[in-house]
Amino acid sequence: MQELEYPFDSEFILKKSKKLKKQLLESRTDFLTKKIAVLGGSTTHDIIRVLELFLLDQGIRPQFYESEYAQYWQDVMFDNPELVAFAPDLIYIHTSNRNVTSYPAVTEQAEQIDALLEEQYEHFRALWEKIADKYHCPVIQNNFEYPFYRVFGNQEAVYVQGRISFLNRLNEKFYQYAREHTGFYIHDINYQAAAYGLDKWADPFYWHMYKYAMCMQAIPAFAYSLSNIIKAVFGKNKKSLVLDLDNTLWGGIVGDDGVENLEIGQETSMGQVYAEFQRYLKAQKEIGVMLNINSKNEYENAVAGLEHPEGILKPDDFILIKANWEPKSKNIVEIASEMNVLPDSLVFVDDNPAEREIVAAQVPGVAVPAIGTPEQYIRVLDHAGFFEVTELSEDDRKRNEMYKANLERQRQQSSFGDYREYLRSLQMKGTIRPFEPMYMARIAQLTNKSNQFNLTTKRCTQSEIEQFAAAKDYLTRYGKLEDKFGDNGVVSVVIGRKDAAAGALHLDLWLMSCRVLKRDMEYAMMDSVVEACQACGIGTIYGYYYPTAKNGMVKEFYASLGFVKIREDEEGSSCWKFEIGEDYEKKNAVIEVEAVVAK
Prior knowledge:
Elements: H1 10-15, H2 17-27, E1 32-40, H3 45-57, E2 60-66, H4 72-77, H5 81-86, E3 90-94, H6 110-134, E4 139-142, H7 163-180, E5 184-187, H8 189-196, H9 198-201, H10 204-210, H11 219-233, E6 240-243, H12 254-257, H13 269-286, E7 290-296, H14 299-306, E8 320-324, H15 328-339, E9 346-349, H16 353-362, H17 377-384, H18 394-397, H19 399-413, H20 419-425, E10 429-433, H21 440-449, H22 462-470, E11 474-483, E12 486-499, E13 504-512, H23 521-535, E14 540-545, H24 557-560, E15 564-568, E16 574-579, E17 592-594
Helix pairs in contact: 2-3, 3-11, 6-7, 21-22
């Protein structure tokens, strides 16, 4: 919804929230429903009201539990029955510097302040540990914003008695905890307050009159930032930037002005602006954001512009370069198709509002931010939170290279008349094993990202993945695949529940990354599951398919493996059965699979 896209009108959102909610609920039916507990150290009703809008816009329909005012700690530590019964999928702890119960006194010495710091930290650490033991769900915790006054003036962060010094140290303890605990995320309200303007953010009127931790007008910006973490946790991040060239990555039109006259680099102020933007995009690539080009240009001119000696981004930084005179909406669709992703994974960045409008109208789902003037490009993309980081795996860092290697595979495929021979030419090697600690984050990430090849669309947090791995009555498998073009990383996940009494395995989850579709990895995974079943006396496997707007491609997946459909309901959900006979013949014939221990 355009009204909820950054940059947005906060006053409009606050005034029209009921109307916007109604429109959002009528606009789609394929919401991901999640239960979110908001535990507040201050008034949270209006935060929830606005947060719901942003989550609905991102495809998440939230159900909320809201603690009573300032009961965030008590609700958890004393097992509030309503919270326990609610069984949240995510807990958000909304505290601020107003919830720090003791600050250093001017007369206190360093040792006393250290003890006070530990006391304040322990108050929160005990809360987080109780949540981990009781609820096994992700936690989002605010850090602490700066106070709106400084007793020590400019030395407030220098003196150990200063509140800024104290909050900085307390924040660092929070950050260290986040580094050491998966599924625990910091919502950086210290940055949010600074970006908004601390004097306005911390207007004391709103605290003393309404017990708001911030001014009313800041709530939409705050809620939007929080929603970005939540949608990232639940797999709603975008995957790729699709970038225009002229007056987007550099100043000028390469075909008219020539490469030598483009504004990029240190010679002019605008050249510096574009260089800084390219540097920002390069950093995005390094955390796993895929880069593509969509430009109305001759291909040779586009490449020449990207090879400008002062440019930060080079042709090799992009997966696809669509530089032609086709409509940009057509190019966008082709980019999605060639990368084997859905259009709603893409963010189209173009300085031309007419081009943005055409793409937005012609390709539903693509994010098309109004990026403003070149000086605003970074701020708009950064605050929009399209690629909010919650976990950063090695596969994320290598994603661009993996997708480029996939394009090489596709090009080689076209030179083969026999598809089986093509697969053998890839010299594929697979590793299929029970879940292991070093891949838990990636496995959880896959369950929240893969939509087209996900038979039940079961979503799992990392802590849940760890529980499945440890449970004796569950069978787990992850699959890695590499070939002569490179390593695809972890690309497939299976979770099955054992019913020893019935001699059956129920497949609760089977998913695969779309970048390895039609590579026979599903056959290798099936062989591994059957082998594990045979080792523990299981003779029957049940598979389940639950249809969504995105996973229609796997509706008949189990049939392709030899399963028999035993029932299907009116919504299209189906159950499939496979009897493992003594004469089971392995289905994989092209992937060399590393031997695996059964579990």
